[in-house]
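Entry 14. Ran structure prediction on the chain below.
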Amino acid sequence: MKRICTALLLVLWVGMAWAIERSTNIVFINGTKYYIHAVQAGETLYALAKAYGVSEEAITASNASAREGLKAGERIKIPLIETEKTQADSRSERKLKKTFSTHFVAKGETLYSIARRYEISVQTVLEDNPDLDPTRLKLGERILIRKKAIGKSDAAETQEQIEEYNAQLNSVAPQGEQYYVVQKGDTFYSLSRRNGITEQELSELNDGLQPHELKAGAIIKLRAEATTPNEGTPQSADRLSEGRVEPEKPRHVEIDFRAHCDCDPLQVALLLPMGTPERPNDNYVEFYRGFLMGLDSVRTRYGHSVELNLYNTRRDTARIREIVADEAFRCAQLIVGPVYEEELGEVVRFAEQKQVPVVSPLAQLPHIKSDVLFEMAPDPKEKYRKAESLVDSVQRITLIYTENTDKHFESEILELLRDRPYEKHTYKYVHPSVKFPEDEPHPSDLSPIMTNDESNLFIIMADNELDVDRILAALASAETNLRARSLAKPHYVVLGNSRWNRYTNIDRTIFFRNRVIFFSTYHAKRNQEVVERFDQAHIRAFGSLPTLYTYRGYDAAMIFVNAMYNDIAYDLEDRRYEPLGTFYRFKQEKPTENHRNRNWMRVNYNSNFTITVE
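Output, structure tokens:
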């Protein structure tokens, strides 16, 4: 009878094991792959171990609570044991290419951004790449993109699936940890502050993640004991007057600025990473000089009284906290800087409390948003809009590639072109002394791409000075030869990369010969009367010509210090400013977001050796 009961019990156990369906929810936690299983009534460790092909010890080692028995409704993690290659791995490379495109992870990419790039569902990407850990993408890692699924998923679905994966992680997260999907607007500072930890601790929790590496859509780890960002209640802290930071005010608050009365001096705080006496940062020394000249002009022209306090931020968030706690800083009525986005959080929180405008003089701010913020760097979206008229005005667009491609510039151009047709040409430099048969085109000859009766736009994708110089020279040479032989009258312009302005060895006359067009955040024509006067004043004061940093410092002082007496009451909204030839126009998309400069400069190098600015 005992044997019959034992046999019957064994059958029941085996039956239970077969009745358990393996979960389809699979996640990576700290680099290890797990099934997420929701325990049903009557399930046992033995049955789960049999169903998933692991030992009971492996389950209890991953789930401390399971040692005391399973509870219906709880979620546990079960190690996934790879027993065979996945279907994708077992296929030949030739068959893989028929079904999949290949994507290699670039710096800063997340599963969210990759899914959005191909408009493919997160679930599909994870199914086709079973070894892909969304929390730890590796630079250069290969991801298979199912061709038939491309273009089938929208942003809402992608966000929903990323949040679902995050929820699965949190259902079995180790004690003391929780996972969070980074939202647009989050910064290293705001996340660490709201979570009640230091930025260093946040970095250590996430394998050394740095502030500039934080991307919307990424899944990161936080401390579970503290309040999470999307729960909204920050940790309390002592007051700034006691050397600590006050609790953050909620974001998305509207600020009403008041014009400053001329009866009292205007208190201005300028925050710059000036370096050290032994190693000063020359760029910000130049910005400071320009700002001082701007203040002098404001006092002379308008009679305003201004008191300036300069703070050296040293690009150090701890130093920012010291500055914000400084008594003189807390009296500021206008704040200019800091220049880096990761430094702004503490300053913006203070400014929101005091209703003080903050000017970001150089950086574009993709993450931090506040009604107190004014961005002098133009909105990147406006650059595309301004360039659309250029690409619409030509009949043929050709992208010229070399072995080395400027990936950032390429992504900008592809975003601009979108569905517009374009051609690609690969340029290979061969020394002119190398002869080729007459019926074989010379690899460096660019005549074939301009031998047509159409208007052409050439866009050079090279990422180094030598290649750019060679291609511009080849274009100019091809045009000269074609015209000399009356074979064609080429019509073309070149859309330039703003990085070319940093190159020191390119003869600028080649820009005129190729009718190069730049879309620039800043342009000061030194033959303009207003710029000539400024240059002469700078030489008298400092013994050298100013730089673009000097001009931007001057603009910041001239626009915002003077605006504090009138235009600030109207948020500078849609007013046009032109201190030194560069135009600024500030607008808000939403009442609680940044006031952004919308004006890009189109700089045309004309064939008659003149420069026009639009």
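The longest helix spans residues 282-302. Will compare against last week's run tomorrow.
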